[in-house]
Input
Amino acid sequence: MDKSDYLEDTILNHVLRNTAYTPATSIEIALFTTLPGEDATGGVEVAGGSYARQTVSFAASSGGVVSNSGAVTFPVATGSWGTVVGIGYYEGSGGGNLLYFGALTTSKTVGIGDQLSFASGSLTVTEL
Output
Protein backbone atom coordinates (compact mmCIF):
# COMPACT_ATOMS: atom_id res chain seq x y z
CA MET A 1 0.00 0.00 0.00
CA ASP A 2 1.06 3.55 -0.66
CA LYS A 3 0.69 6.47 1.75
CA SER A 4 -1.11 9.59 0.66
CA ASP A 5 0.73 12.92 0.69
CA TYR A 6 -1.62 13.98 3.50
CA LEU A 7 -0.57 11.07 5.72
CA GLU A 8 3.14 11.48 4.94
CA ASP A 9 3.02 15.17 5.91
CA THR A 10 0.92 14.45 9.00
CA ILE A 11 3.35 11.81 10.28
CA LEU A 12 6.45 13.92 9.62
CA ASN A 13 4.96 16.97 11.31
CA HIS A 14 3.72 14.94 14.28
CA VAL A 15 6.93 13.00 14.89
CA LEU A 16 9.59 15.56 13.96
CA ARG A 17 7.90 18.88 14.65
CA ASN A 18 5.74 17.95 17.66
CA THR A 19 2.59 18.99 15.79
CA ALA A 20 -0.55 17.59 17.39
CA TYR A 21 -2.41 14.89 15.47
CA THR A 22 -5.83 13.59 16.43
CA PRO A 23 -6.46 10.22 14.81
CA ALA A 24 -9.83 9.46 13.28
CA THR A 25 -12.32 7.59 15.42
CA SER A 26 -13.05 5.26 12.50
CA ILE A 27 -11.44 4.16 9.25
CA GLU A 28 -13.44 3.42 6.11
CA ILE A 29 -12.42 1.34 3.12
CA ALA A 30 -13.28 2.53 -0.37
CA LEU A 31 -13.24 0.61 -3.66
CA PHE A 32 -11.68 2.09 -6.79
CA THR A 33 -12.03 1.37 -10.50
CA THR A 34 -9.07 3.74 -11.06
CA LEU A 35 -6.54 4.28 -8.27
CA PRO A 36 -5.87 7.81 -7.02
CA GLY A 37 -2.42 9.37 -6.88
CA GLU A 38 -0.58 10.18 -3.66
CA ASP A 39 -2.22 13.61 -3.73
CA ALA A 40 -5.62 11.80 -3.53
CA THR A 41 -6.67 13.03 -6.98
CA GLY A 42 -7.43 11.15 -10.17
CA GLY A 43 -9.05 8.16 -8.53
CA VAL A 44 -12.44 6.84 -9.53
CA GLU A 45 -14.37 5.44 -6.58
CA VAL A 46 -17.22 3.02 -7.19
CA ALA A 47 -20.59 4.81 -7.13
CA GLY A 48 -24.23 3.78 -7.32
CA GLY A 49 -25.74 0.32 -7.24
CA SER A 50 -26.00 0.31 -3.40
CA TYR A 51 -22.25 0.91 -2.99
CA ALA A 52 -21.13 2.41 0.31
CA ARG A 53 -17.77 2.63 2.03
CA GLN A 54 -17.42 0.19 4.90
CA THR A 55 -15.84 0.64 8.32
CA VAL A 56 -12.74 -1.46 8.89
CA SER A 57 -10.97 -2.28 12.17
CA PHE A 58 -7.38 -3.39 12.53
CA ALA A 59 -5.58 -5.70 14.94
CA ALA A 60 -2.50 -4.42 16.80
CA SER A 61 0.56 -4.13 14.58
CA SER A 62 3.32 -6.68 14.76
CA GLY A 63 6.67 -6.20 13.06
CA GLY A 64 5.43 -3.15 11.19
CA VAL A 65 2.40 -4.95 9.72
CA VAL A 66 -1.26 -4.46 10.56
CA SER A 67 -4.27 -6.33 9.15
CA ASN A 68 -8.03 -6.15 9.39
CA SER A 69 -9.38 -7.76 12.56
CA GLY A 70 -12.70 -8.85 11.05
CA ALA A 71 -14.31 -9.49 7.71
CA VAL A 72 -15.27 -6.45 5.63
CA THR A 73 -18.37 -7.04 3.53
CA PHE A 74 -19.84 -4.57 1.07
CA PRO A 75 -23.57 -4.45 0.23
CA VAL A 76 -24.95 -6.61 -2.56
CA ALA A 77 -24.53 -4.66 -5.80
CA THR A 78 -27.86 -3.56 -7.26
CA GLY A 79 -26.06 -2.17 -10.32
CA SER A 80 -22.73 -2.81 -11.99
CA TRP A 81 -19.79 -1.47 -10.00
CA GLY A 82 -17.36 -2.13 -12.84
CA THR A 83 -13.93 -3.65 -12.34
CA VAL A 84 -12.56 -2.92 -8.87
CA VAL A 85 -8.79 -2.55 -9.16
CA GLY A 86 -7.88 -1.20 -5.73
CA ILE A 87 -8.82 0.05 -2.29
CA GLY A 88 -8.22 3.08 -0.13
CA TYR A 89 -8.49 3.80 3.59
CA TYR A 90 -10.09 7.09 4.65
CA GLU A 91 -10.34 8.91 7.99
CA GLY A 92 -13.77 9.11 9.54
CA SER A 93 -17.14 8.46 8.02
CA GLY A 94 -18.56 9.94 4.86
CA GLY A 95 -15.42 11.57 3.54
CA GLY A 96 -12.25 12.38 5.37
CA ASN A 97 -8.68 12.30 4.14
CA LEU A 98 -7.20 9.46 2.13
CA LEU A 99 -4.58 7.67 4.24
CA TYR A 100 -3.44 4.58 2.32
CA PHE A 101 -4.31 3.16 -1.09
CA GLY A 102 -3.20 0.29 -3.29
CA ALA A 103 -4.04 -2.17 -6.01
CA LEU A 104 -5.76 -5.46 -5.37
CA THR A 105 -3.70 -8.56 -6.14
CA THR A 106 -6.48 -9.58 -8.53
CA SER A 107 -9.03 -7.14 -9.94
CA LYS A 108 -12.67 -8.07 -9.39
CA THR A 109 -15.57 -7.28 -11.71
CA VAL A 110 -18.67 -6.62 -9.61
CA GLY A 111 -22.01 -7.01 -11.35
CA ILE A 112 -25.63 -6.94 -10.23
CA GLY A 113 -26.16 -9.40 -7.36
CA ASP A 114 -22.45 -9.72 -6.52
CA GLN A 115 -21.13 -9.03 -3.03
CA LEU A 116 -17.49 -8.19 -2.43
CA SER A 117 -16.01 -9.29 0.88
CA PHE A 118 -12.54 -9.37 2.42
CA ALA A 119 -11.78 -12.04 5.02
CA SER A 120 -10.31 -11.18 8.40
CA GLY A 121 -6.56 -10.73 8.10
CA SER A 122 -6.59 -10.37 4.30
CA LEU A 123 -6.13 -6.58 4.19
CA THR A 124 -2.64 -5.58 5.29
CA VAL A 125 -0.68 -2.36 5.63
CA THR A 126 3.08 -2.53 6.08
CA GLU A 127 5.38 0.19 7.42
CA LEU A 128 9.01 -0.49 6.63
Residues 2-112 form one domain. The radius of gyration is 15 Å.
